[in-house]
Each structure stands twice: as structure tokens, then as C-alpha cells.
Design a protein that fits this description.
By secondary structure, the chain is α/β, with parallel strands linked by helices. It has helices at 33-43, 65-81, 101-117, 129-143, 162-169, 194-200, 212-226, 251-262, 266-282, 290-310, 314-328, 336-350, 357-369, 396-403, 410-416; strands spanning 55-58, 88-94, 145-152, 175-183, 203-206, 230-232, 242-244, 334-335, 373-379, 386-392. It folds into 3 domains: 51-206, Rossmann fold (3-Layer(aba) Sandwich); 211-307, Helicase, Ruva Protein, domain 3 (Orthogonal Bundle), CATH 1.10.8.60; 311-416, Winged helix-like DNA-binding domain superfamily/Winged helix DNA-binding domain (Arc Repressor Mutant, subunit A, Orthogonal Bundle). It is 47% helix and 13% strand. The strands form 3 sheets. A 5-stranded parallel β-sheet has the order 2-3-4-1-5, with helices on both faces. It has a 3-stranded antiparallel β-sheet with strand order 8-10-9.
């Protein structure tokens, strides 16, 4: 049995390769200067004696949205600390899984009371959402000054929009409120009522996916702080100037390329590099090599994508099997109509409902959003419209293994093996 200790190996600071923003908080985002500048402009009125603008920040997971907002609000807090006549408070709440305005308001009341009384307090229980908003208003008035409320994953508020309506319109004596909403749902703004949309999204900032070059530089900065004998030549902090005795030259480019072709997700790229480093450490190697990256990708797919496939509904699994079947026959990418023929045959074989083609296409698109399938659109020729094409985004063996765990579908996967 292995014992702990003496395992540092290639690491200098292992936490820096943790992809979760709560573990390691970057102090710079050079790839997001334009986006940070737009956030800066929306917050600048505070420094001019005015009120902050409301902002909606969009972008897929792992694009630096939350980190960027935190960097600019922390910078603003540092400025305010040096001003005698400015009181600035930043309240950050995650709305993930909140569902209702009540939950968000209860979290905000807890946060503001911890600022007001400078101690940990319990989340209120029992009051209605209207009463919670009144409590929040009174506590904010007691603090006074400028207040920025950051609602991360704001699309988690699904069942009612009371808090989104009331916060931007709150009129509290001696208090100015600015709301920053962060979401990976590009349709979030459009799905809001017009009166909420007009006030909540006065400024919008979009964080587009990173490309492979940007991901290389992000990984290089992480590696320089996380790994021993890894540094920037001439002090230039980009991947071209990274020198390392514990990383082979193709590791960071490969991690960046794999993440870039999938989603452009920086967390995914960092997770891949971190897992590759762990595998090298497990092997007792003194350097991380390409094989560790490729093995790490397989391990991560098994861990995350495999779990996702296992948890899918029966209908989505059958939709996935249609693409698997086409892939094994060498016929992918394949169009919706051809896949639907396979689907009708498989549903009859399983003895489950056969949905209409439009609903079947929705199941395929759900799998695309989950990065299990790849989707593309191609023209069928002049005046003949577009066709949707689908192919696997994961290893076919992984699909066979995980879908095969479903007793209703194991007969099909056994035939495909």
C-alpha cells in the first residue's frame, strides 16, 4: 500500500492546476482585455460620483466570466478603500439550483448581514420573498453607499423573476445598486419580460470561446506557477517563452488543441493538464509527456462524459445509439432523416415509444449540447434548404460500455460490439 509524503515530484504548487475558480484565483486575464474593459466602463460611474450600470455577462462555461467580474470588482474595492467618502459593498451569490427568487433573496440577506455585523449569520427561514426583500432593503440602507450585487449563474432563477424585477428598481435612501448577472445561456436575456430586460441588461458583455492559441498561453501561466523548474524566458508570459524541465514540448499545445476543438473551455484545458501531471506522478516519471495527456483525456471522458451518458434518458440513449450505429458503419456524419430511420427500428426493437422526427432531432441536439455528439449544418443545394449532420464526439467504446449498462438497451450494444 502506498504511503503519503515525498510525492511532490513535478509540482511546486498543486492548487494552481485546480480548474475550480474557488481554489485558485488568477490575478490577470490578458486574453480578456476587451471584455474587462467593457465591465470597467460599466462600473466607472462609481468613481465619478454616479451609480453603477447593470450588466449581463454571457459566455460558455470556462471562458473567464466569473473570474473577470471578480477581478474588476476587487479592483474597484481596492480603489474605494483609498477614498474617504466612498462606501462600496460587493455581494456575490451563486444562483445555481436556486430555482426561486426566495432562495436568492435569502442568500443575499445572509450576505449583507455578514457585512453589516462582521460575523457569520444564519440564512433567514420563514419570511415570504416580499418580506425578504424588505429585510434586504433595510440592511442595505444601514450599510449605505454603493452596492454591487453579483448574481452568478443567474439563469438558475427559473420559477419566478421577482428578484430580477425588484433589484434593478430598488429605491433605497442613500444607496445605489448595480446588478451584474453572469450566465452561459445566450437566450436568457431574450426570455425575460420586456420590463425586466430593459433595466437588468443595460450593458451586455459576451465572453466568446477561447481559441487554441489563447488556451496555450493560459496553460503556460498556470504551469509556470504550479510546476517546478518551469518558468518564462525573458519574463514574457506566453507559451512560446515557457521553459520547463518537467513538461515535454508537446504537452501544452496538445492540451490546448484538444480543449480548443471541443469547447474552448479553459477549465477543461486546465483539468486535462492537471490530470496528465497526476498520471505522470503515478508513473513515477520526472516529466509529463504526450502519452500522459492522451491517457488523461480518456480518463476524463470516462469520468465525466461516461457519467453523463449513463444518466441520460432512454430516448436520448436510443438517439445516441443511432449515431453510434452509423459511426460503426462508416457513415457519419449522417443526416437526421437517415438517423430517424435507424431510430424507428431501434425503438420497435426495444419496445418503447417512437417520437416524431422533430422531437428526435431535439434529442440529438441535446446530446450535442452535452458534447457527446458533434452537430453540423450543410446546404442541400440551391433552394433545397439545410440538413443537420451528426457524428460522435466521444469514443464509440465508451458509448457501448455506458449505454450497455441500461438493461433495456444491452441487447443492442452487444450486437454493435
Amino acid at each position: 500500500m502506498e504511503s503519503f509524503g515525498g510525492e511532490q515530484g513535478i509540482y511546486e504548487n498543486v492548487d494552481i492546476l485546480d480548474p475550480e475558480p474557488d481554489t485558485y484565483k488568477p490575478t490577470e486575464l490578458p486574453e480578456r482585455e476587451d471584455e474587462l474593459s467593457r465591465i470597467h466602463s460599466a462600473l466607472r460611474p462609481i468613481t465619478l460620483g454616479g451609480s453603477p450600470r447593470n450588466i449581463l455577462v454571457y459566455g460558455p462555461t470556462g471562458q473567464g466570466k466569473t473570474v473577470g467580474v471578480n477581478l474588476k470588482t476587487e479592483q474597484l474595492l481596492q480603489w474605494a478603500a483609498g477614498e474617504d467618502d466612498i462606501t462600496l459593498t460587493v455581494l456575490r451569490v451563486s444562483c445555481k439550483g436556486a430555482g426561486k427568487s426566495w432562495n436568492v433573496l435569502a442568500d443575499l440577506v445572509k450576505k449583507v448581514r455578514e457585512v453589516r455585523y462582521n460575523k457569520t449569520v444564519e440564512k433567514p427561514r420563514g419570511p415570504t420573498k416580499v418580506e425578504l426583500f424588505e429585510m434586504l432593503s433595510k440592511d442595505l440602507q444601514a450599510i449605505g453607499g454603493m452596492v454591487i450585487i453579483v448574481l452568478d449563474e443567474i439563469d438558475g432563477i427559473q420559477e419566478d423573476s421577482y428578484v430580477l424585477y425588484e433589484l434593478p428598481r430598488a429605491s433605497i435612501e442613500k444607496v445605489s445598486i448595480g446588478v451584474i448577472g453572469i450566465t452561459n445561456d445566450y437566450q436568457f436575456h431574450e426570455n425575460l419580460d420586456a420590463d425586466i430586460r430593459s433595466s437588468l441588461g443595460s450593458r451586455e458583455v459576451v465572453f466568446s470561446p477561447y481559441d487554441a492559441n489563447q488556451l496555450r498561453d493560459i496553460l503556460a501561466r498556470r504551469a509556470a506557477h504550479a510546476l517546478r523548474d518551469t518558468y518564462f524566458e525573458d519574463g514574457i508570459k506566453d507559451s512560446q517563452h515557457l521553459q520547463s524541465e518537467v513538461l515535454s514540448g508537446d504537452v501544452i499545445p496538445l492540451c490546448a488543441a484538444l480543449a480548443g476543438q471541443d469547447t474552448g473551455d479553459a477549465r477543461q484545458a486546465i483539468h486535462l493538464l492537471s490530470t496528465a501531471c497526476d498520471l505522470a506522478l503515478d508513473d513515477g516519471r520526472e516529466a509529463v509527456e504526450e502519452v500522459h495527456v492522451r491517457n488523461a483525456r480518456e480518463e476524463i471522458q470516462e469520468e465525466t462524459i461516461g457519467k453523463g451518458i449513463r444518466g441520460e434518458t432512454t430516448q436520448r440513449k436510443i438517439a445516441l445509439l443511432t449515431v453510434l450505429e452509423a459511426d460503426l458503419a462508416g457513415e457519419t456524419p449522417e443526416g437526421t432523416t437517415q438517423l430517424y430511420r435507424r431510430y424507428k427500428r431501434l425503438t420497435k426493437l426495444v419496445g418503447t415509444d417512437t417520437y416524431q422526427q422533430g422531437t428526435f432531432r431535439e434529442k440529438l441536439n441535446d446530446l450535442v449540447h452535452g458534447n457527446i455528439l458533434e452537430g453540423d449544418r450543410h446546404g442541400r443545394g440551391r433552394g433545397r434548404g439545410m440538413t443537420n449532420l451528426y457524428s460522435l464526439a466521444v469514443d464509440p467504446t465508451l458509448v457501448i460500455d455506458k449505454v450497455g449498462e441500461d438493461a433495456r438497451l444491452s441487447e443492442i450494444t452487444e450486437q454493435l460490439e
